[in-house]
Amino acid sequence: MQNNINEICAMLNSNRWMDTQTTAFALFVLGKYAEKNNVSNGNLSAIVKINGEEHTLNSNMSSAGIKFTPKLGSNTVEIKSNSDQKLVANLFTKTSVAEYDMTESGNFITMNMSYTDKSGNALNLANLKAGTDIVMQFTVQNPSEWQVTELALSYYLPSGWELVNDRLFGDGSGNEGAKHIDIRDDRVYIYFDLAPNSKKTFTLKANATYEGNYMIPAVRCEDMYNNEIYYQIPARGCVVK
Length: 241
Fold this sequence. Notes:
The chain has 241 residues and is mainly β. The chain contains 2 helices and 15 strands.
């Protein structure tokens, strides 16, 4: 029984994606186990030494924490339990994320995209003339033998571009493979599924309206319910003259 409980705890503590029903049932099982075995909160007592500075933890709750600001370079954390109960330590970090992600990465699926004019000629994003119409094509491929469902492709426009919504003019062709397309002022979300060994191509249109230097945020396609399935095209700059 204890091995099963440990396995459930490890699963809840991992980065593995679980839906709401699975999480709720796992917590329900842990609650019933605690109730049957008369598990109650014990006194927590420990000494925590962070970069040589000692802190004392005393609490009648099942958990307690200490906040600290790490120094540049290496940091050390030492913990000594003063009670006879099993003590589990977790380290949580909070950082400031860079505004633009410049890395390309992916798992399970692949994606590529192109920027062309209406005639299909490749555009130089570092030298766009104001008023240029831009055609963006995204091709997402599932090279595996498994079906991938509930994919979401997110595209955020640079602030100097304006999205051209063909649906306003009665033309929604070219994206029939999508289950739904959410078009907003500055971004587009495309939702779709991919059969095994298949790919789908989607097309969006924009206009380079305002002069200036801009950044195109990273383009990301991911499974909405499984964070292990994704692909990301890095952010890049563009210049409208």
